[in-house]
Each structure stands twice: as C-alpha cells, then as structure tokens.
C-alpha cells in the first residue's frame, strides 16, 4: 500500500527549544517509518524576521543539523530547503490571486502584530499563503505541528478547496496532526514556550544552560506542587513515577528542580553530542540537503505543470 504523505517544516530563526521538539519535531522522527515524509527548512518564512545574511546562513545549516541530530534518517525522509523549491513561491502567487485581504486579515499572527502596534510587512501578511503552498504542492495528507500552527493548516485546506473549485480538482486537503497533551508546551514562566517570550529551554543546551534555565522556572509556593516544573518534567517521565517523585519531595522545590536538571541532561546530552559530530562533516550534511531538495523540487515541478495548465498559463 502506498504510504500517506507527511510534511512539516521549521523556521531557521535561531536555536530550537524543547517546545519545538515535543510539539512537532519528535513526531517527525516517530512517524518517519509509517509515512512518506517531506521535512524542510522554512528559510523563506524566516526572512520575515531574520534579515542578516550570515545569521540566516548559519541558522539554515543549524536546522539541518538539528534534523539529523534528533534522528531523522535521510534514507527515509526527504530533507530539503524551501527556497530550493521555487515552485512554492510560484504557487504562492497563484493562491494570492484567489485570496482576499479580509480573509487573510483574520490570521492570528497578523492580528497579533496589529494589536501590538506593529506595521506588518507584506511578507508577514502573506505568510499563511506561502505555508499553504508548501503543504499542498507536495500533496501532503498530514502536517504535524504545535497548536499555534493550527489555523495555518486550516488556511491551507481552504486554499486547496478554493483552487479546486475554481480550476478543477488538483490538490489534496491536508489535515493537521496535533497531539492533545503536547499541543502547547509551556515555558519556564508557564506561558507557551516561545523565543519571543525568553522562556525557553534550548533543545541542544549545554549542561550549564540547562541548569540556568531550570533554576529560572517560576514557582508559586501557594500550590500543591511547583506546576511549571512539573509541566516540563512531564515531558520526560511517565505520570506515575512523576507523581511519586513529587509526593516524596513535596515542598522541596529546589530538589525537584535538581532532579529535572538531571533528567534534562540525560535526554539532551546524546543529541547534543551527535550534533557536534555531524557538524564536523559539513560536506556530507550539505549533500543530504542537495539530494532532498532535488527530489522535492522535481515533485513540485510535476505538480506545477498541472497547475499552469489548469490555470491557463500554458499555451500548448
Ligand atoms: P516554527 O519554526 O515557529 O516552529 C516549529 C514547530 O514547533 C511548534 N512549536 C510548539 N509546539 C508546542 N508548544 C510550543 N510551545 C511550541 N512552539 C513551537 C510549532 O507549532 C511548529 O510546528 N510556520 C511554521 C513553519 C512552516 C511550516 C510550513 C510548518 C512553514 N511552512 C508548512 C508546517 C508546514 C513555524 O512557524 O514553525
């Protein structure tokens, strides 16, 4: 039986955190055997916030290393860079012409930018359409993401539907894959873990960084247990052993943080060491990316030939 298609991406905007990992990236690894997977580096999306050549280049290579270090196997997964598939931006334009400004004005990221008094770029406004193109151009069935991307997958579905009803059946309607208990991983202050809140624990943190982040977890002495510590700890331990531990060490917040530090170290160290090893052979890593990009581009081109024909851009 043909495997279903899974597709997702991460923006190269800085170091990934454990929210990215448990909310989305871990699923990429766990599902790589059961799906035909396309996992990419969303470098064009990153341009909405990173506008520095050296920084962007370093971040792109960084995400590639992250993917390999968490265990994505290039034999099973097509790993590619978004900008190596220019058909995506071509499709974005076509979808733009099927989208209204009021429709896109309801997107969360744009509304938040406006609410915060920012003047969003056209790129930020159009972000969901570029993402829709990423997804539907590869005929994705499922898109594993965190809760914050849910609306974007709904927009991708809407765009596929809109295109199909205007030009005839062409695109599959994708579904998001969001794990209920991991939909929004909390940060050190209990809010959603996010680079912009400065409440992250880095996925490839050094031992020292792990200690510092955990010690900065905000605790409230009025509760039964330190909720913010427990919530992060729950990512690493099953509920039964965790409840036992928190019962044994009731009220000992510092000790509980120390156990969390040790558990995080056990989880992070092997991945961090693997990443260091991978980084030593940049040439091989870049070859993996090139092979993946070639494959993703060829597939996208095939789809775009059909799109150009249906839209009326192709003359013969
Ligand atoms: P990015 O790079 O911001 O985030 C990568 C993934 O991490 C998830 N995530 C979280 N999940 C749970 N709890 C959190 N605190 C948390 N923080 C981040 C995000 O939901 C995401 O799945 N727009 C995408 C990149 C993208 C994409 C795509 C994804 C571009 N095109 C097509 C899927 C399909 C993004 O901003 O990722």
UniProtKB/TrEMBL annotation:
GO biological process, one term: tryptophanyl-tRNA aminoacylation
Presence of keyword Cytoplasm: yes
GO molecular function term, any single one: tryptophan-tRNA ligase activity
Chain positions of motif 'KMSKS' region: 192-196
Record keywords: Aminoacyl-tRNA synthetase, ATP-binding, Cytoplasm, Ligase, Nucleotide-binding, Protein biosynthesis
Motif 'HIGH' region, residue numbers: 12-20
Record Gene3D superfamilies: HUPs, Tyrosyl-Transfer RNA Synthetase
EC identifiers of the protein: 6.1.1.2
Compartment annotation: Cytoplasm
GO terms for cellular component: cytosol
Residue positions binding L-tryptophan: 134
Catalytic activity, as annotated: tRNA(Trp) + L-tryptophan + ATP = L-tryptophyl-tRNA(Trp) + AMP + diphosphate + H(+)
UniProt feature coiled coil, ranges: none
The keyword Cell inner membrane is annotated on this UniProt entry: no
Entries under InterPro entries matching the protein: aa-tRNA-synth_I_CS (IPR001412), aa-tRNA-synth_Ic (IPR002305), Rossmann-like_a/b/a_fold (IPR014729), Trp-tRNA-ligase (IPR002306), Trp-tRNA-ligase_bac-type (IPR024109), Trp-tRNA_synthetase (IPR050203)
Top-level taxon in the UniProt lineage: Bacteria
Location (main, coarse): cytoplasm
Alphabetical list of Pfam families matching this protein: tRNA-synt_1b (PF00579)
Annotated positions binding ATP: 11-13, 19-20, 146-148, 185, 192-196
NCBIfam families to which the protein is assigned, alphabetical: trpS
Sequence similarity: Belongs to the class-I aminoacyl-tRNA synthetase family.
Reported function: Catalyzes the attachment of tryptophan to tRNA(Trp).
PANTHER family named in the record: TRYPTOPHAN--TRNA LIGASE, MITOCHONDRIAL
Known partners and oligomeric status: Homodimer.
Name of the protein: Tryptophan--tRNA ligase
Native organism: Candidatus Zambryskibacteria bacterium RIFCSPHIGHO2_02_FULL_43_14
């Amino acid at each position: 039986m043909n495997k279903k298609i899974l597709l997702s991406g991460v923006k190269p905007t800085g170091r990934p955190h454990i929210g990215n990992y448990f909310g989305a990236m871990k699923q990429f690894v766990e599902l790589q055997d059961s799906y035909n997977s396309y996992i990419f580096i969303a470098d064009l999306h990153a341009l909405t916030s990173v506008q520095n050549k050296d920084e962007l280049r370093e971040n792109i290579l960084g995400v590639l290393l992250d993917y390999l270090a968490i265990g994505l196997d290039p034999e099973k997964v097509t790993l590619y860079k978004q900008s190596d598939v220019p058909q995506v931006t071509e499709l974005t334009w076509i979808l733009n012409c099927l989208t209204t400004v009021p429709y896109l004005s309801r997107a969360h990221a744009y509304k938040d930018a406006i609410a915060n008094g920012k003047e969003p770029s056209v790129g930020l406004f159009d972000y969901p359409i570029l993402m829709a193109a990423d997804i539907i151009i590869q005929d994705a069935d499922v898109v594993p993401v965190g809760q914050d991307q849910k609306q974007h997958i709904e927009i991708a579905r809407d765009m596929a539907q809109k295109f199909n009803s205007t030009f005839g059946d062409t695109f599959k309607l994708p579904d998001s894959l969001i794990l209920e208990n991991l939909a929004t991983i909390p940060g050190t202050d209990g809010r959603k873990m996010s680079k912009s809140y400065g409440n992250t624990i880095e996925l490839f943190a050094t031992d020292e960084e792990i200690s510092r982040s955990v010690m900065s977890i905000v605790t409230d002495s009025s509760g039964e247990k330190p909720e913010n510590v427990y919530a992060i700890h729950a990512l690493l331990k099953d509920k039964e052993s965790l409840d036992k531990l928190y019962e044994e060490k009731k009220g000992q917040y510092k000790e509980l943080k120390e156990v969390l530090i040790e558990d995080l170290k056990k989880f992070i160290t092997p991945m961090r060491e693997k990443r260091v090893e991978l980084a030593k052979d940049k040439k091989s890593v870049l070859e993996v990316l090139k092979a993946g990009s070639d494959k993703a581009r060829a597939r996208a081109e095939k789809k775009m030939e059909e799109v150009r024909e249906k839209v009326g851009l192709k003359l013969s």
